[in-house]
Design brief:
Largest sheet: none
Order of helices and strands: HHHHHHHHH
Helix content: over 70%
Keywords: Membrane, Transmembrane, Transmembrane helix
Distance between the termini: 65 Å
Strand content: under 5%
Number of strands: 0
């Protein structure tokens, strides 16, 4: 009975995601009386908003979430418990996403920001649950499931800061006492440090690369207006990419060295054992 109850949440995850993503797509093309998201950004523009193409990561997240939602319902996946463990936070996050869309497009910006924090917390819950399961040999074949949820966690980390800036702009905050450019630089450095911490803790590459993509998007948007902010964002993004590559190469070199050392030591042991048997 308990297994049946848990699988019910799996079946609810698919329509929840379909409804959430479908409403977002529908609003993008047919906003109706609501204010388009791009127009709100234009009204409350600040230096932490990246170039428009950066938001394409949302499409990647949406597509991969739909793949997950369908795949986890296949008969062969019926007894894989990771899908049961993340189903409820996925559903709750989908509901928050729909409420956020209404709140943001009707300019209830503080409420929208609080809803973003809620989505971020849920995404981190899913992220940590998946990482815990992936630490066991049994579930390493399901590493692909990290793509949608780790990308979502990284994007929500970035967007929570971005939408905080939109709300602060709406109430007239202009960076006092530091200045808007200093606040933007500090925000870039904070999200970069969070990405670096996740990479150090979990050896995850998706999270820091997503943040790097967002930082480079800030550079593309601000390079003509705020060159210092653009330079810091570009440097931070390139640093995250370089660190991921260097750590991956170093880890690969260590693995190859250990494998080579193991191969070399095996014949020597065989000869030694053969001699001892002959004696």
């Amino acid at each position: 009975m308990k297994d049946h109850y848990m699988r019910c949440w799996r079946w609810l995850a698919l329509p929840a995601l379909l409804l959430s993503i479908g409403l977002t797509v529908f609003h993008t093309f047919f906003p109706g009386e609501a204010i388009p998201v791009s127009a709100i950004f234009g009204r409350h523009e600040h230096l932490f908003i990246p170039a428009t193409y950066t938001f394409s990561v949302v499409a990647v997240i949406a597509a991969s979430l739909l793949v997950y939602a369908g795949y986890q319902l296949l008969p062969a996946q019926r007894y894989i418990p990771i899908y049961d463990k993340i189903a409820r936070p996925v559903i709750y996050s989908s509901v928050l996403s729909m409420v956020w869309l209404y709140a943001f497009t009707h300019e209830y910006l503080f409420i929208a920001w609080v809803l973003q924090i809620g989505q971020l917390i849920l995404s981190l819950v899913v992220f940590t649950r998946i990482r815990k399961e992936m630490s066991t040999t049994l579930y390493r074949q399901y590493k692909w499931i990290q793509l949608p949820f780790t990308t979502a966690a990284a994007w929500l980390t970035f967007s929570t800061v971005m939408y905080a800036g939109v709300w602060l702009k709406s109430i007239g905050y202009d960076g006092v006492p530091f200045g808007e450019n200093v606040v933007a630089i500090l925000a870039v450095l904070v999200v970069a440090m969070l990405a670096n911490a996740v990479h150090n803790r979990y050896r995850d590459v998706i999270f820091p690369l997503t943040i790097a993509w967002c930082c480079i998007g800030i550079y593309a948007e601000q390079r003509g207006a705020e060159k210092l902010v653009a330079l810091v964002a570009l440097s931070t993004g390139l640093y995250l990419v370089a660190r991921v590559v260097i750590v991956a190469v170093r880890q690969r070199v260590v693995e190859v060295t250990r494998a080579y050392a193991s191969v070399r030591s095996t014949p020597a042991r065989s000869v030694s054992d053969h001699r001892s048997q002959s004696a």
